[in-house]
Write a structure and sequence with these properties.
alpha/beta; BirA Bifunctional Protein, domain 2; 8-stranded mixed beta sheet; 8 helices
């Protein structure tokens, strides 16, 4: 059975707008005003995003501001991600949509199968690893998403490739994640707080051992448009979807503007800050 979802390709935008749009779509989808949606997007300028409960003290704000990078807090959990040189995806679907029904891991596995197909199309022999997750204290001590193991993470060559997170609300399910296409993964460490430069250097070495970009693995660049096409094909084939190109509705756009003002432009006010 093939179902119709909306496909949104939105232009690069600031972090607060990107997160507000994801939430506005989820609300509209939950009310039945919009179709379940696969959104593919990018960020401009680069943006550091924190998980909803991650302490703001993980960020070196003067270093962040000196680089002109944005800061936003995601509606999902997890640790810090620097969004630049990547393809970001989000899925918003109501709770009765079969592809996100069941437990968090069941829905994550279904969506991960579509992502794996996209990566295989790009020539990446990606796998989903069933990995041991360290105790919470060990996870919370690490501010970087791509250095923290998670259950059923997507890897290539034994290194983490895709970081994803999911929020389950009354309106439905929002899952979004990042595929780093190119660039230096250790850039994120330049805007996180470390007690000294030696600690920062050690963190950089660990990160490069545990995570990789598409270009870093393939030895060649994959364009954003090429990655988009692979995701569209992967989701269509694996999830039996008819993806129809669409636009944000006027109501979604108004709600996103409201969420920027009230919520996402103020990362310091959001989350359960454990400082």
């Amino acid at each position: 059975m093939t179902d119709t979802w909306r496909l949104l390709l939105t232009p690069p935008a600031r972090g607060a707008w990107n997160m507000a749009v994801d939430e506005a779509i989820l609300e509209a989808v939950g009310r039945g005003e919009s179709l379940p949606t696969l959104r593919l997007y990018a960020w401009e300028p680069p943006c550091l995003s924190l998980g909803y409960a991650q302490p703001l003290s993980d960020v070196d704000l003067p270093r962040l501001q000196a680089r002109g990078w944005d800061l936003v807090r995601r509606p999902t959990g997890g640790r810090a991600i620097l969004h630049t040189d990547e393809l970001t995806y989000s899925v918003a679907a109501p709770p009765d949509e079969p592809r996100v029904a069941g437990t968090l891991l069941e829905s994550y596995n279904r969506l991960a199968a579509a992502i794996l197909r996209a990566l295989h199309i790009l020539g990446l022999p990606a796998e989903m690893q069933d990995r041991h997750v360290p105790a919470p204290a060990a996870v919370n001590a690490n501010p970087v998403c791509f250095e923290v193991p998670s259950i059923y993470e997507i890897t290539v060559g034994g290194k983490k490739l895709v970081g994803s997170a999911q929020a389950r609300r009354r309106e439905g399910v929002l899952q979004h994640g990042a595929l780093p296409l190119t660039g230096d993964l250790t850039r994120i460490l330049q805007v996180l707080a470390f007690p000294d430069e030696e600690s920062r250097s050690r963190a950089a070495a660990r990160l490069l051992q545990r995570a990789v970009t598409v270009e870093g693995f393939l030895g060649r660049k994959v364009s954003w448009d090429g990655a988009v096409q692979a995701f569209v094909t992967g989701f269509s084939e694996v999830l039996s979807l008819d993806l129809q190109a669409g636009e944000l509705s006027a109501a979604e756009r108004r709600r996103a503007e409201e969420l920027v003002e009230k919520k996402y432009a103020h990362p310091e006010r959001m989350g359960k800050q454990q400082e």
